[in-house]
Amino acid sequence: MIRLKNDEEIKRIRESCKMLAEVYQDLIPSVEEGISTLEVNRICHDLITKRGGTPAFLDYSGYPASICISINDEVIHGIPSDRVIKDGDLVSLDLGIDLKGYFSDSAITVPVGNISPDAKKLIEVTKQALSAGIDACVHGNRIKDISASVFKVADKHNYGVVREFCGHGVGFEVHESPQIPNYVHPGPNPRIKKGMVLAIEPMINLGTEKVNILDDDWTVVTADGKISAHFEHTLAVFEDHTEILTIPG
Ligand code: MF3
Ligand code: CO
Questions:
Q1: Which residues of this UniProt protein bind substrate (predicted)?
Q2: Which domain holds residue 95?
Q3: Which of 13, 41, 197, 218 is 20 to 30 A from 98 (CA-CA)?
């Protein structure tokens, strides 16, 4: 069941999303050469709690940290550790905030120092894929319009589109119905309607779309060891427009 949100509920979710965007603004400058991902996690946790929010991923299905930090061939769900960020790393951050029961979700891939031309292009194309998905996310379209738009951008560049993980409804929980795959597959294809709050999140690999999960049971890595990028926004659908909620207010 897809839970639609009324204007008051969207207002609360918007506040959670604005907080998330502000946290990213404050956090991203610290994502640089020499810092450990555990330290980034600590800074992030403090930024959220001092604003009165709760990190939504902490303890979600047993996830042990406040933010996911995935470097280079890590696609998503990287667990903060003593690993130190290096020059040339591609650092994907994925963060959710629970603000008084209203949930936001957003991801960004941050280039650190001098990254390769391949990495630069992958970041640009993944951003473009998200943007194409957002353009298709309008009242009256269907979920597969989002999937097809995202996939088309990545596929044009022969990149691998991760199949096992997808976008989703959000707002009252971290993950709600519907699922929003980043490729067209034969599954439910609900109509997009006003009152939906959706997170679109392409995970795009430079090489194969195939992924593995590490022994920590969380970290998703590319099967061929090539780099991956991830961008995500939370959106609210209105009858005559769609609002990107996870951008600074
Ligand atoms: N990153 C996921 C998403 O954007 C949610 C993270 S689940 C967690 O939908 F357990 F890893 F935190
Ligand atoms: Co998400």
A1: 77, 175
A2: 7-244
A3: 218
